[in-house]
Description:
Low-confidence stretches: none
Strand content: 15-25%
Structural class: alpha/beta
CATH class of the largest domain: Alpha Beta
Largest sheet: 6 strands, mixed
Distance between the termini: 43 Å
Amino acid sequence: MEIIRAENLRHVYKTSAGEKVALDGVNFSINEGEFIAIIGINGSGKSTLAKHFNALLMPSDGKIFVAGLDTSDKKNLWRVRENVGMVFQNPDNEIVAAVVEDDVAFGCENLGIEPDEIQRRVNFALDIVNMSAYKKFSPSKLSGGQKQRIAIAGVLAMQTKIIVFDEATAMLDPAGRREILDTVQRLHAQGLTIIYITHFMEETAVADKIFLMEDGKILKIGTPRQIFSDVKEIKRLGLDVPVAVELAERLRRRGLKFPKNILTDEEFINACLNV
């Protein structure tokens, strides 16, 4: 069932130098429970699009509908945001309390939820992200990956149907990135709709679909295997490809018979064993 739809969505920023078109007639639909990765170089429109999912930005033209709600209708603002939670780049900017469980409860408190229900939700959310043991900790004592998991728990406690990750692993080390991606995959397995914006191409391999963006447009929508099958096109756009895809492509150029649909490290290793 469709949960998000964009119709000729445009966004234009007003700057001192004039107008800057960030989204230029974007059309797509996302079904409930899908995992969508969005990729493109800086300035391609990824983060602008992310801010339209929960009405942080209003369309300059066109429409975007979230759970059937027109985001440009101000009467729908809070209902849209009840459906969509966001996790941003810097976990330190997302922490508002001195104790982990208080931070996770913050959004629920702003929604006016009863204290007993808040406590139930906080415990549930911390359990999902494997952070229950840290509920009484100060966030300042946590790693970057742990802080991002606390931010995710705060979104889960508000019981949103959709979570948007806007470069949520950009400031983390490899271990932290793995923590977050594992958490995201668990949430997806439980039926949440995931929208995942990243510069790390390996992270997109687990998505159902990838939106490939350039200059405010969606150039292509496809599975990870479909998107990364054209290495030359991806690199033309200034993007990398997953390491397994890159290595397989180089070895094919050297005359080795590697399958063209290799995507993951495991597939690459299996192909090496069979060459």
